[in-house]
Amino acid sequence: MAEAYIVEAVRTAGGRRNGKAAGWHPNDLAAQVLNALVDRTGVDPAAIDDVVMGCVTQGGEQSTALGRNAVLASKLPQSVPAVTIDRQCGSSQQAIQFAAQAVMSGTQDMVIASGVESMTRAPMFSTIALYAQAGLGSGPISQTVKDRYGVKEFSQFRGAQMIADKYGFSRETLDRYALESHRRAAAATEAGAFDAEIVPLEVETSEGTQLHVRDEGIRYDATLEAIGSVKTLEEGGVITAANASQICDGASGVLIVNERALKTHGLTPLARIHNLTVTAGDPVIMLEEPIPATRHALARAGMSIGDIDLYEVNEAFAPVPLAWLREIGGDPARLNVNGGAIALGHPLGASGTKLMATLVHALRARGLRYGLQTMCEGGGIANVTIVERL
């Protein structure tokens, strides 16, 4: 069977809303990642067969063939095509899977999977709001779909509360998980664990030009008391902004190649892609799908969770990884070892390749073999990707 290899994986440091990365146009922010991938691998930019770029809020500065515009803003030649995809929070994880399928098929040899999201410059739900304000249409979900599931609306926030209720997670349990995310992210940052994956961004400050190389969302002084003081999103609920992922600006990407490209370009792989899975389930509770998706992926790969050394489960909301741990039987010590989106931020369309960059570099730093990545996605979809460190 043909193989797909990751030869480089990078990301920008996360920027808070209106933070250090906010001054970067999404085209240019994504271009920094594309440039870093070719610079670090030394490949001829013209040899890249395609760029698959994830982005969720494809409006405003992120509209109109964002992937192509990012290529034109980069050092890649105009001969390199690109496509922009939306699988909600899993957009760039799906980009990885599309890129891997392309090189495994032999139709292409080198494909960049990437993602970008400036949640400052293209706010979440802004495209929906613009149409609503203009009185155009009834929104992205038709009445047919709402009637089928007996709901007035589909909400990830409601889905997170439903998971907390289903699994009996208390507010304190979620807040303690959030605190641990900040503690792990802070420790990883101080230890330089992210240095190999971060692409520096030049930013203008009142003190002159500086390099943005640290994730801005980490609260180094986080306490359970402070997290517990944040108001819940709904009365009687347990979900808060403090135990959910942070709004974030960022870009990320991985260069995926086949055996032929490894030999032709003299590349050294960081990891081999071992399994590609995507499944779909209940769009109402919505965020629970990583559980059956992981079971399916492990069965297809002929593996058990005990075979997996590290796992990245996106911290969209604290109940998601906690429910996944319980149902899959995972080891908490192997989960999001360098912190997750609660501390580091969740730049929507960029999170898939962001988590992969962190996972691959964490496996290498620890000398471990297998890693698994999954995340919940709007509409009740989930991707799972298993990689083997080489």
UniProtKB/TrEMBL annotation:
It comes from the Bacteria. PROSITE patterns: THIOLASE_2 (PS00737). Residues 267-389 form the Thiolase C-terminal domain. The keyword Acyltransferase applies. Gene3D superfamilies: 3.40.47.10. CDD domains: thiolase. Residues 5-259 form the Thiolase N-terminal domain. Keywords: Acyltransferase, Transferase. Belongs to the thiolase-like superfamily. Thiolase family. This is Acetyl-CoA C-acetyltransferase. It comes from Sphingomonas colocasiae.
